[in-house]
Amino acid sequence: MTAIYIHNTPYASQQEARDRKLTSKALVRFECWWHLWKIEAWPFKALGDGDLVVLLSTWRGCGELTWLVKARDVHKHSYGGWANATEAIANWGAMSVPEVRSEMYTSAKRPSDPGVVLAWKATPVKALNTPRPLGLRLRPTGWLLTDAATLKGMGVPLP
Predict the structure, then answer these.
(1) What is the CATH number of the domain that holds 103?
(2) pLDDT of 103-156, one tens digit each?
């Protein structure tokens, strides 16, 4: 059984999801994902370099599985506040601090809350570009752990 994580990126609309869609392997390799949590929420301790992840983009009532990737450069960090966290993400991801802080997800976090950062990059394996299967439910953190057989049984075109 091959374990596969599913990671969700929510969008306000289908148009926004289309506008920000990662359409090439180069764009997937360039992208960074991160979470700011008050506690070590799952999969903080579990996710590691080389783990398989399916990228899911969602918008109201719909979604699309976009890529099968391997997690790389997984970064786990405790922080004392939002400023510290955003600076750590910027340094790790070779981005500017304003770029990190202007991300919709990051800007919605409370500036004084301490917590943890889970950040990662990806190595693309295969473009999936398939609708979100019915019944696919993720945890409130935006993650799910499943396996290749289950996903293939839902019609996901895994290699």
Answers:
(1) 2.30.130
(2) 888 988 877 778 999 999 999 999 999 999 988 999 999 999 999 999 999 999
8 Å CB contact between 28 and 77: no
The model's pTM is 0.94
Provide the residue range defining the domain that includes 11.
3-153
Determine which helix (DSSP H) or strand (DSSP E) holds 26, and give its type and residue range. Answer: helix 25-30
Torsion angle in degrees (nearest 10) through CA of 36, 40, 41, 44: 90
Maximum distance among all Cα pairs of the chain, rounded to whole angstroms: 44
In a domain, 50, yes or no: yes
Do the beta carbons of residue 90 and residue 100 sit within 8 Å? yes
Residues 139, 91: Cα–Cα separation, whole Å: 29
Supply angle C-alpha 139, 157, 136, rounded to 5: 20
pLDDT at 1: 74
Residue 71 placed within a domain: yes
3-state secondary structure 71-99: EEEEEEEEECCHHHHHHHHHHHHCCCHHH
